[in-house]
Amino acid sequence: MTRFVALLAAVCVSACSRSRELPPCDASLALPVAPKDPAAAVIVAAGDIAECPGGRQEETAALVEQIGPDAVFTLGDTTYPDGALDEFLDCYHPSWGKFRPITRAVVGNHEYHAPRAGPFFAYFCGGAGAPFEGRASFDIGAWHVVMLNSNCGGDLDVPSSVPDDFGGCGPDSPQARWLKEDLAAHPSRCTLAMWHHPRFTSGEHGSADSMRDLWKILQDAGADVVLAGHAHLYERFAPMNADGQVDVVRGMRGFVVGTGGKVPLHAIDQVHAGSEVRNTDTLGVLRLELRSEGYAWRFVPAGGSSFTDEGEAPCHD
Amino acid sequence: MPRLTCALLVSLVTTLITQTVRGETVPAPSRLRWSMDGRLGYATSWTTGQSYLGPATGLVGGWTFGVPVHVELGAAYHVGSIESATNDTLVYWSRRRSVFVHAAAGYNRTILAGRLLVRPRLILGSFFIVDEAELGGAIREGIEARFAFGPGVDFLYRFGALHAGLDARALFVPSHVAAPVGGLFGVFGIER
Fold first, then answer.
1. What is the pTM of this model?
2. pLDDT at residue A61 above 70?
3. Interface test with B, best of A7, A8, A17, A21 (most B CBs within 10 A)
4. Domain residue spans in chain B?
5. What is the ipTM of this complex?
6. Which residues of A touch B79 (CB under 8 A)?
7. Of A206, A280, A193, nearest to A244 (Cα)?
C-alpha cells in the first residue's frame, strides 16, 4: 500500500509540475534606454504579437530588424492565447526575442491567463518594470516614458482579482499616486505613456473608460503621446482630453497599434470622435522618432502592403 | 471535446436501448434514499494555459426520490499544476489549483437486474481557481470563480448497500478563458 501511494505521488508530481530554463537577463534590461542619437531616438512599438501556430510575428520581427531601433516597446498581449511560459519561450522568443535586451514591455490581458502574468514578468526580466506591478518609467533621449498597467476592469477581459496585484487604476490607486509622483519628479518637455487597453478606439473591443483618471493625470502634466494595443488594428487619434474630446492645446495623441502579428485583425465598430486614421487589414509596426522638441511617426506595413501613415508634431510647450 | 460528449451520449443511448430490449423495469425506491460517494480521478481542459485541474479527489452527497430523480451536492479538489523557470539571476515559480463545487440533478436507470445503475445528470457548479506566483522575491496570489455547467453520467455497480463505478463529465466554462473541461472519476460509496 505504501509503495502504491508513493508511486501515485511520483506520477502526480511528474505529471503536474514542469520546469523550463529562462534566457539570461541581459544587463541592459535595466532601465533607462540609451539611444544612439539622443536628439532623435528611434523606437518601434506594436502589441498583440505572437501566436504559434498561425501568428505572423516573423514578418513583423523582420520589420523591426530592418528599422534597427534604439528601443522596442511592446504593447501587451505579447503571446497568444494564454501568455504561457511555453508561448514566450517557444513562440515569441524565436521571433521578437532577438530584441529582448532593448524591449520595454507593458502587460496585456492575455498575459493574465497565466498565474498573475508570471511568465510575462519572468521572461522580460526588468524590462517590464517591477514584478507583478507592470508600471515603470525611464528616459530615452529627451523624452520621459511611462509604462502603466491597464488591466483594471471587468469590461477589459481581465479576471476580477487582477487589479489587486497592483492596486488598480482609480484616482487614488497606488498606480495613480505613483504616476503623479513620477511625473512631478521628471518634468520633461516631452512625455510618452504606454499601456495595453486603449482609452479611445473605434475597434470592436471598445474604449477603456477605466483609464480615464490616469489619462487625466498625464494630460494635466502635459504628456504628449499615448501608445496602446488590444484592438487588433492601427488607429491614430487627434490630441484628446480624458473626456474624449479633441483638445489640440492640452490633449494627448493616441496610437493604437495592435498589429504586431496576431491575426485576424479586428473590424471597426463605430468610428470614435477624434479618430484621424484607421486601418484594419495591415499588420505592421509603428516607428516613432523621439526628437528633442517633438516627434515623428510612420506606420511600417508588413507583407508588402501599401498602407502607411506618417506625420510629425511638436511636444506641448 | 466533441469526442467525449459523443462517447457519453453513445453510452447513454446504448444503456437505454439495452434496458428496453431486455424489458427490465426500474425498481423505484419506496422512500427517499441517500448516498455518499468518494471520488478519485483526473480532469483536463482544452487549453494551452497552466492547468488548474489534473488529479482530483472529492466527496458527493446525494438523495434519490421515488420518481427516481437523483439530486446531489459535491465538491472536488484538483491538484492543478506547478511551473517553474530559472536562469542565472531569476527564479520564477507558479502554482494553480482549484476546488469545484457543484449541484446536479439526474435520473436513475438500472440494468442487470438492478445491479448496474446508470445516472445521466446535469451539473451546475463553479470552479474556484487559486493562483500563486513568485518572482524575484515578490509574491502574488488570487482566487477567481468560473461558472461551469454540462452533462455527466455515473455508471455504478451495486454490492448490497455499497457501490463502485465511474463518473464521466464534460463541462463548459463560459468565461474569458472559455476552455471546456472533461473529467473521469472512480466512484466508491454507500447508499441507504
1. 0.89
2. yes
3. A17
4. 29-191
5. 0.87
6. 12, 16
7. A206
